[in-house]
User: What shape does this take?
Amino acid sequence: MFNDNRRKFLKKTSAAAGAAALPILWPSTASAQWSNQPEKGAKLRVLRWKRFVQGDEDQYMANVKKFTAQYGIEVRVDNEGWEDVRPKAAVAANAGAGPDIILSTNDDANLYPDKLVDVTDLCNYLGKKYGGWYPVCEDYLKPDGKKWIGVPLGCAGNAIVYRESQVKAAGFDSFPKDMPGFLKLMKALKEKGTPGGFALGHATGDQAWAHWLVWAHGGKLVNEKNQVVINSPETVKALEYAKELYPTFVPGTLSWLDPNNNKAFLDNQVSVTANGISIYYAAKTSTDPKLLEMAKDIQHANFPIGPIGKPSEFNLFFNQMIYKYTKYPKAAKEFLRFMMEEPQFGPWMQASNGYTCHPLKAYEANPIWTVDPKNTPYRDAMKIMWPCGYAGKMGYASAASIADFIILDMVAEAGSGAKSPKEAAERAQKRAERYYKV
Assistant: This one.
């Protein structure tokens, strides 16, 4: 069930959000104990998603090389697009053969939990050593409240990316913090000839804004009893808002996948979008003088607060799964432990400019979040995010529903006028009920 402890956790931590972060618990002082002996002659194969920032892949592979040098275990790493990893992960689970470790997205692990190695010992160790896991990690990978079926890697933080000069030219001194102000800004940008744009194609990561839009108005796919309730007055209100918002978008967003808004923004086609930190990273690390100048104008903001009166953000969750068919489960655990320890994980976050937000609370102290104020809005992505199965139990149905883009399609249909808000909500209800069978 959607973790009720999150509300208590957020209440305790919200006051300290801008204060000093938690100190990292170093190995010499940590109470956590780890004992594991990798199998002799072990070799590992890892399948992970392709990088969106070069520093991610470069440092990840540097850490892999470091692991091999220390343990003598050869590690092969293959990279695929997000949408290609999911089916390959499912095939591996069903066939009982494939990569030993797969880094996938959202709650894919809940599609085949019985095919995965129990990593409770590893997660308990890391949690004790590094200040604990954010509640959303348990929502995704500890579905029964007892056993961890995967190791959280973090999430691709999603925030509003905008051109400060163009927002000011539209008559706004700062980015709006509420829904009426956001809509007013988007209309003003359209009138100025500097429109925004948000992905409405089957974008695995960039669909996050559609969930925010629905949740911010009080809509949800399922309730706490796992009953489908997407066809509700709250959802219809969200879709009516989407219908007003969509005409402010640059043409073509109905077919946008994850790379499209990056390209459109960097090509100066849009002034506002929702994305990870990869757009800013690409601009500020470019050798193109125009992009370097653009980087100075790029700002980030958290999503506006909707009628429910609190943050309702969804970010792309990353999991790390070890499959039971592996011949080397201990070596696989050792690899994941090694990659999650601060000497490797900290530099990886810095090299990727915070593209992946940490799942362990102690990493709030990583300097990547404060060395550049533009990075800071991404720091709390794991802390405030809701799971894709909100507000119900994570499992096959939630994993299948997010993979089928039910909420995203609903917003696209209503926003574009392909269906009325009521019709779009009714269709989403029927699609979801196929997975959430009574």
Summary: The mean pLDDT is 92. The CA atoms of residues 53 and 282 lie 7 Å apart.
